[in-house]
Design a protein that fits this description.
heterotrimer, A mainly alpha (249), B alpha+beta (150), C mainly alpha (222), A: 249 residues, Four Helix Bundle (Hemerythrin (Met), subunit A), 79% helix, B: 150 residues, alpha+beta, OB fold (Dihydrolipoamide Acetyltransferase, E2P), five-stranded mixed β-barrel, 3 helices, 6 strands, disordered C terminus
Chain lengths: 249, 150, 222
């Protein structure tokens, strides 16, 4: 917990985040480059899917991140709710657009894969439908922040929305196991170990690590941005108040 | 009731309702809610469904016949206990082959076969290069038995 | 407990009063269903196949447009302040308001469903499954909707935002409701499981609504 309290102070956060951000960005770019190299050039074609399997290296980690970002958002919201700490609210707020982009990427690449493999761009199957709902939950969460001016109140109300929407996450994860679904069941995080050949796991995990660390870099950048924007707003409010008192005098 | 009693009653109510909801879900999960029927599901029905249905299973080895004149393809979908003939006119997905899991969407014809409007190939959770698949087959560790390479 | 029942009877009475919203919501429901029917045109076979999904979608949309009535009027005239001040347990009052919304906005729709089903040429064996699925599923619409209504309480012109927040959360109820209605009509085996899922969703939202709704109201009133 000590680490969190240290980080929870915006100035300390800035001191740690400032050097961390370029470092994480560099690592993410390197891992992503290596991952893409293995994914596109140095991994075997699948025995059934052929080269289309390469879409998976972009699609699967994006889908992991879609769920992970929502979980980060919901837990930050809960933390902000319980400890009323502004940094938790900020991290929940800025995670939403990042998560929405990962979700859109997963939906888009899944669709590209589905057309040649399943024979359809889209099917109203449990997994696909629940991920589409996730996308709209992200958008609704963003809409809440945009329509409430008072930051503290927006944070509390958006937190409620995020926590209520969290029920969708286990539904997404287990939809392919609970129902006869068109989407294939889990291949990596399942009982009995992965059912993906080692030569294909390497690019998959490289891409997954690149996405995860890239998310860390984006999160830090977005939090710093948001903190700076808020400081600017406070400054201009103070300046405006001073200016108006001067005018009155 | 005092304020405290009300609060206890409320929390008790939450647990009671949650327990009931979980019971309902577990009861429902014990009978599958399906994106598709399997052939044996269909056989088990008293009244054959009337509207559009989805049927899923493996394409039976050796059952695929192309009818060039009518541009139709006939095949049989099977599972452990049942089999069902399917007629389809249209483009098949890349993954369609004998031994492959497929889901077809269509209507039951009077003779019990399915006239498909769409054929979707279902991919399984296994990903491997062709050499590994071949090696597994050679060692006799291949599970589905009749999957073929194209 | 008295406060709980008092809120239900008061809100329901207000709803059924002239201009109280019940009649308007029912009219909206009928018009939505008819818009679908007119759009489909003279293809009766197609219409009879989509009758149950159409009526479920129409019920969902009607619930959506009536949600701002749950708290908005009370917030504007200050009676919500009184409720918050005097309630021993705000959660209970929120639950009462959601139940009142179901009685005043959703129950009339279910009563009107057989007539509209006739116009949409729903097959005779589809009536009971449809009505049953609506009875089990629409309370979830009121409960989940109460959360969004409470969250958007202090916003002016919250109508579209309520719809954006609520519609994704309505999807499971819609999916299992339509599945139950269709399965019941065709004798498919997933009729009972779909109804059970629907009922479980209603119960879960019944827990969630008072907790999240009361929290949102407190934040909006502070």
């Amino acid at each position: 917990m000590g680490v969190f309290y240290e980080l929870a102070n915006p100035e300390r956060f800035e001191r740690i985040a400032k050097p961390l951000q370029p470092a994480l960005t560099a690592i993410a770019v390197l891992l992503g480059g290596a991952g893409l190299y293995y994914a596109l050039f140095n991994s075997p074609a699948d025995y059934q899917q052929g080269d289309t399997v390469r879409i998976m290296y972009v699609h699967v980690p994006a889908a992991w991140m879609a769920l992970f970002c929502y979980s980060v958002m919901a837990f930050s919201s809960a933390a902000g709710f319980i400890w009323k700490h502004p940094l938790a609210d900020v991290s929940a707020k800025v995670t939403a657009p990042i998560g929405a982009v990962f979700t859109a990427l997963a939906l888009f690449t899944g669709s590209l894969w589905g057309k040649p493999m399943w024979g359809a761009w889209w099917a109203w199957d449990a997994r696909l439908t629940s991920v589409l709902i996730l996308f709209f939950l992200y958008l609704g969460y963003i809409a809440i922040w945009e329509s409430i001016d008072d930051k503290a109140r927006a944070a509390r109300l958006a937190a409620i929305v995020a926590i209520v929407g969290f029920v969708n996450i286990p539904i997404i994860k287990f939809s392919v196991d609970w129902w006869n679904s068109l989407h294939q069941p889990a291949s990596v995080f399942r009982d009995g170990g992965p059912t993906i050949d080692g030569s294909m796991l390497r690019p998959l995990f490289l891409m997954g690590a690149a996405y995860m660390i890239g998310f860390g870099a984006m999160l830090i950048a977005a939090i710093r941005n948001e903190l700076m924007a808020r400081r600017l707003q406070r400054l201009s409010e103070v300046a405006g108040r001073k200016a108006s008192t001067v005018n009155v005098e | 009731m005092t304020k405290k009693q009300k609060r206890f009653a409320f929390i008790g109510g939450i647990f009671a309702v949650a327990a009931l909801a979980v019971t309902l879900v577990l009861t429902a999960l014990s009978s599958a809610v399906a994106y598709f029927y399997t052939p044996s599901d269909l056989d088990a029905l008293d009244h054959p469904p009337t509207g559009v249905i989805r049927l899923g299973g493996l394409v039976e080895g050796g059952s695929v016949q192309y009818n060039k004149e009518e541009a139709e393809v006939h095949f049989v979908i099977m599972d452990e206990a049942g089999r069902r003939a399917v007629t389809y006119r249209g483009v098949l997905p890349d993954l369609f082959r004998e031994g492959q899991g497929v889901v077809v969407e269509g209507k039951l014809a009077p003779d019990g076969s399915v006239t498909a409007m769409q054929v979707l190939a279902k991919h399984d959770e296994n990903y491997m290069p062709r050499e590994v698949a071949d090696a597994l087959k050679k060692q006799g560790r291949w599970k589905e038995g009749e999957t073929q390479n194209q | 407990m008295n406060g709980f029942l008092a809120i239900i009877s008061r809100d329901v009475a207000l709803g059924f009063k002239a201009g109280g919203g019940t009649v308007q919501t029912a009219l909206f429901f009928a018009l939505t269903a008819l818009v679908f029917a007119i759009a489909v045109g003279p293809d009766t076979a197609l219409l009879s196949r989509i009758a149950a999904p159409t009526l479920w979608a129409a019920a969902l949309l009607s619930a959506l447009v009536s949600l701002d009535r749950i708290f908005q009027a009370d917030f504007e005239d200050g009676s919500l302040d009184v409720i918050v001040e005097t309630a021993d347990l705000l959660e209970g009052r929120v639950l009462a308001k959601a139940i009142a919304h179901w009685i005043a906005a959703c129950l009339p729709l279910i009563l009107a469903t057989p007539v509209l089903a006739l116009l949409l040429s729903l097959p005779a064996q589809g009536y009971w499954p449809l009505v049953l699925s609506l009875l089990v599923g629409t309370p979830a619409l009121s409960f989940i909707g109460a959360i969004s209504a409470a969250v958007t309480l202090s916003l002016r012109r919250a109508g579209v935002l309520i719809a954006i927040l609520t519609a994704p959360l309505y999807a499971p109820a819609l999916i299992f409701g339509v599945a139950a209605a269709n399965a019941g009509a065709s004798g498919a085996p997933n009729f009972i499981p779909s109804l059970l899922f629907l009922g479980a969703g209603t119960l879960f939202s019944m827990i969630l609504a008072p907790l999240a709704g009361a929290a949102a109201i407190r934040f909006n009133m502070s």
